[in-house]
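Residues determine shape. Next comes a sample protein:
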Amino acid sequence: MRLLCAICFLLTLFVVTPAHVMAASQGTVTMLDGKGSLIRGTSRYTLVKGIELQQGDILELNDNSLTQVEFGDGTAVSFGEQSRVMFFSALSGKRTQVEIYILRGIVKASSAKGAKQLQIDTPLMNIAFTDATGVISVSPTEAEMFFETGGAKITAGRSGVKIKEGEYCSIKAGKKPAVMNRPPQSFIANLPIPFRDSLPSLLTKTGNRKVQLGKPLDFSYKEVEPWLDSKPTVRRYLVNQWNPKAHDPSFREELIHNMHKHPEWGRVLSPEKNVNTVPKVGAEAVK
């Protein structure tokens, strides 16, 4: 009976993942200054320039590092040191909409004119914008942003605001968004120097050459613990991404010990008890 429940659970994961989500392109790494890693599925790789990202990829940058990801519609997003981000996509109408989850770090994003709306989610707020350029800084307790051009819609829980060109918005845990006419000097001072200029367009220089990732490496529970403890929608997605890790004895032990932080894993560790509560996966899981 236990084996049958486990098989049913795994089959359901494949059935509910839409084909367009599995095949969606998540952009190309067109610049890398420094070092970082890419987590894809259950493996960690050294981040390399020119790699095409896939649904569910996680980028993690080291100290003093900077990278840029560009999309075919002209949208560009640059990530500063120690950034931790995950890439999603969803089909909206006839076009794929990019969604980026920032666990922490500082990001400059430029959504091209005529491009699909860019959705950036954080632990404290969601930002949606088109034809605009903004800088977003995210920590576990606060999120800040400033839009150089255009504007954005900010949603935090049941609160929502719109900010215009030149305005600054911040939100702290448990508080409503606060909007100012200009960013404070402390925010400007913490920007990476390259963020003070327009993001360069590098995709055409990268070309169509297929860049391969290097040797796949394993990752431990402790290395990805911040992701496993993140917001519920991301945690549910990772149940599908990292399902095979439940067979790693040390990883499994940590999952069980910290189950109160990520109860979604109960469906994997004890499927016979949770066979009727299969988590959503793919783009559905991050709504």
About this structure: The two ends are 33 Å apart (CA to CA). The chain has nine helices and 17 strands. Residues 77 and 109 are 4 Å apart (CA to CA).
